[in-house]
Design goal:
CATH topology of chain A: Rossmann fold
Largest sheet of chain B: none
Distance between the termini of chain B: 151 Å
Number of helices of chain B: 6
Radius of gyration of chain A: 23 Å
Helix content of chain B: over 70%
Number of domains of chain B: 3
Number of domains of chain A: 1
Number of helices of chain A: 12
Distance between the termini of chain A: 69 Å
CATH architecture of chain A: 3-Layer(aba) Sandwich
Largest sheet of chain A: 8 strands, mixed
Number of strands of chain A: 15
Shape of chain B: elongated
Helix content of chain A: 40-55%
Radius of gyration of chain B: 51 Å
Largest interface: A-B, 54 and 51 residues
Structural class of chain B: mainly alpha
Oligomer: heterodimer
Strand content of chain A: 15-25%
Order of helices and strands of chain B: HEHHHHH
Order of helices and strands of chain A: EHEEEEEHEHEHEHHEHHHEHEEEHEH
Shape of chain A: globular
Chain lengths: 370, 171
């Protein structure tokens, strides 16, 4: 029998005392667990100092304030998905990609889509690319005083960056970084089975819902791993408290995981039908406002980062960018993490962030010291 | 001595630790099993059945609400959204104008910068400088000439005054 579940004492009295002590600890841990779930305030997130450079509809373009000397002229624009909130890229001090890059001397910007409401239900990917990403990129370049920019696209944000990169050449896109961004939508794990099932009709969903509510999107993501997401999240918190570990990180992560946004129906229809069901992106069959998205037109330097345990954007889905994009400088890196592990946790801090900063350093215009 | 002490120990299974170990190991097994199940067509088809039934209900409900709000004097969700859409489109227009303005401003800047850095500018500057020197020379010469003329024409003017009466007098 495993020693870790045995109590070994000199007397029965001592055994009784040990059991009583564990019982008390468990009671205290369970009480604290309930307190965290029921009463604790949500921790602060996205706290890196920033200014709003531009607003449009509900979206905001953030410019992060430098905390050290700016070393690179080429600005970095981060584009996030239309699901959840982008503050996962600036989660909490000491665990923030934004904070890391700013400290490394980069001029960092982030496009926050905001909370979509009923009036946004007709927004399409054309609108996002032409009316949001393209003007944001121009404003970033203008503000940074650079003719070139770098883009970091996380998850669907990477796919949207690809659409932009194929259609726009001003400002010049020098570097494109994918963080778990799906490019090839074939063999997409559980999504492949669900979204290609005979009964799954995105038109029917959008016609009925028009604006896809947060609950529906949240359900779709959580059901990829239901036991871990619906039950494991809470048992993990109890274990963290019982083992006397810091619960702060669980709280910020849980805040982000449950902080979803509505999805514009028209965009949802395109996302499911054109991307997942027909895999049009790699076939160069996506057309936005009459212009065809051709992946080989993208000549930017490419860095594709994937988590080998990712079940939302599988590694091969991102790796496909190396085959289909047109540039000559392409780098592919894998890490033993899941979807969120590329921007959260120790692997992100110790490996992913330094890799991004180093890769960018070799491919960004340096500011000469005066 | 140690052997005797070891013998004297009371050993018992810790029910708390046993439960914890059992539970978390079980959770891992369940996680894997459920993940395998949700990847099947059976699950996908079952869930679609539930989804489509819900969508039918939702369509029915929405149609009913729409019909009611059409007849009602209250603003519906669609009416409010329509106003918001107008505001957003107005904002788009202003944004477009701002971008156009920035573009014009940029192109003006580029043009001015281009003119400033045009190599033929040096030649032009040199020629202007030469012209300025030439003008100065001409000006000096003209002044000198004027002085000479004044010196030579003064007596002539004086005699002319004597022959012809001033204009005011003619009036």
């Amino acid at each position: 029998m495993a020693d870790d579940i045995l109590i070994k004492k000199d007397s029965a009295l001592q055994v009784g005392e040990a059991l009583a002590k564990t019982g008390q600890d468990w009671w205290a841990a369970t009480a604290r667990w309930w307190e965290v779930l029921a009463y604790d305030h949500k921790p602060s997130t996205g706290t890196s100092p920033k200014e709003i450079l531009w607003r449009k509809n509900k979206s905001k373009l953030y410019h992060y304030q430098p905390t050290s000397d700016r070393l690179y002229r080429t600005p970095v624009l981060m584009i996030y998905a239309l699901i959840n909130k982008p503050y996962v890229l600036d989660l909490t001090p000491g665990s923030s990609l934004v904070e890391y890059l700013v400290k490394e001397g980069y001029d960092v910007y982030l496009l926050d889509w905001g909370d979509f409401q009923w009036e946004d239900r007709e927004l399409t990917y054309s609108d996002f690319v032409y009316d949001y990403i393209a003007p944001a990129a121009r404003r970033v370049a203008r503000n940074a005083g650079s003719a070139e920019i770098s883009i970091i696209g996380y998850c669907m944000g990477g796919t949207m960056s690809t659409l932009y990169a194929s259609l726009f050449n001003k400002p010049t896109l020098r570097n494109l970084i994918y963080l778990a961004a799906p490019i090839d939508f074939s063999e997409a794990g559980a999504y492949d089975v669900w979204l290609r099932a005979v009964g799954y009709d995105p038109d029917r969903i959008v016609d009925a819902m028009e604006l896809i509510p947060t609950g529906f999107m949240d359900w779709g993501t959580r059901m990829l791993n239901p036991v871990a997401n619906y039950l494991g999240t809470y048992t993990r918190l109890w274990k963290t408290i019982e083992e006397d570990k810091d619960e702060h990180f669980w709280k910020v992560l849980n805040k982000w995981a449950t902080d979803n946004i509505n999805f514009p129906g028209a965009a949802y229809r395109e996302w499911i039908r054109d991307f997942y069901q027909h895999n049009k992106l790699i076939k160069n069959q996506i057309t936005l406002r009459g212009r065809r998205v051709q992946l080989q037109r993208i000549k930017a330097n490419l860095l594709a980062l994937v988590g080998t345990r990712d079940h939302i954007a599988l590694p091969h889905q991102t790796a496909a960018a190396l085959t289909y994009l047109g540039g000559n400088d392409k780098t592919y890196l894998e890490y033993p993490v899941g979807h969120g592990g590329l921007v959260l946790g120790s692997v992100a801090l110790d490996q992913v962030f330094p890799d991004i900063a180093d890769w960018l350093a070799d491919r960004s215009e340096h500011i000469e010291a005066e | 001595m140690d052997y005797k002490k070891e013998q004297a120990r009371v050993t018992m299974i810790d029910p708390y630790k046993l439960w914890k170990k059992l539970y978390f190991n079980n959770e891992q097994v369940w996680t894997a099993a459920v993940r395998d199940f949700i990847n099947t067509d059976l699950f996908a088809n079952s869930i679609d059945l539930v989804l489509n039934t819900y969508l039918q209900y939702l369509r029915f409900h929405n149609d009913l609400v729409d019909r009611f709000t059409e007849e009602s004097p209250l603003a519906s969700k669609r009416d409010v959204a329509r106003v918001a859409e107008l505001v957003v489109s107005l904002e788009n227009k202003v944004d477009g104008m701002e971008l156009d303005f920035e573009e014009i401003s940029d192109s003006l800047k580029d043009n001015l910068f281009g003119v400033k850095n045009d190599p033929s500018q040096d030649d032009l500057i040199g020629r202007i400088a030469k012209l300025e020197t030439l003008m100065k020379d001409i000006n000096t010469n003209l002044t000198a000439l004027k002085k000479q003329m004044q010196a030579t024409t003064k007596p002539v003017r004086a005699t002319a005054k004597k022959d012809t009466p001033p204009k005011s007098e003619n009036k």
